[in-house]
Amino acid sequence: MRESRYSRQIRFAPLGEQGQAKIRAARVAIVGCGALGTVQAEAMARAGVGRLRLIDRDFVEWSNLQRQFLFDEADAADALPKAVAAARRLAKVNSEVEIEPMVADLTPASAPDLFEDIDLILDGTDNFETRFLINDAAVSAGIPWIYGAAVGSYGIKLPIVPGKTACLRCVYPEPPQGAQPTCETEGVLAAVTATIAALQAGDALKMLALGTGSVVARLTTVDVWSGAIRQLAPPPRDPDCPCCVRREFAHLNGTKRAPISLCGRNAVQIHERSRPVDLPELAKRLSAVAPVRSNEFALRVVIDPYELTVFPDGRAIIKGTQDVGVARSLYARYIGA
Fold it and tell me: At residue 214, does pLDDT exceed 90?
């Protein structure tokens, strides 16, 4: 008689049969099927989570293969949507798990539907704008979620339980100002993305099996190059937090989302004036990616097939697309968000 695929997990005393049954009944959404999300998704599928909803609007590229564990060369050659390629792979890993690939952009309009009937959200995104939207949606609906981020050799993780722990806006009242380091400009090691995703997955399984009260919401940072690992005391809740206290969901209702508009033919303008950009510093970072032309008034870089023009006030014009989701993604990847 074949042994249960979850036998080693069940034998882990804090989990047991009862914990495994709760995991099998759980519904988890993963936002972003990149370096973090693919590791999260495989860990959840192998652990036997009942339903996995994979949310991502991007396609597999050759540069993803270094760290995005579910994809192979054929996926990149065919430019498959990441959510679809991940779902196909996971279906072979565990056919017992119901997998819902959602080739979609997470927006204020789509968030309520994408998070409907979900027990827990895992953050596999790469920008604060989307994380603040996840935070608003999760707090509004009372869904626990686990924030994670990584760039270079450094990563960070924080579990968030609405009504019990600090939310993301308590910890980061505003997104970081100016152009931020991104994987496109600073690079990233697969070792750190896998580490952060594994820590997120560990928190997720504990929450699903034992309840949200089982996890201490410490801020954990890891640098796999220096070997430094730190755990900070749980950040306090802000007694005047606009999100989890005043319940003013500015990102969910769209009032805090960077305005975007079509700008002529085959171009999109992002009207991000909330954080000035240091053009010389940005030019230095982007010059490692592609040739840059800049002066005191604007910076221009061509990242085939797109052309990005960035202004000191944070505005950018992205030529080569009329898809606002693509424009947002390019802004986040090369300028930071």
Answer: yes
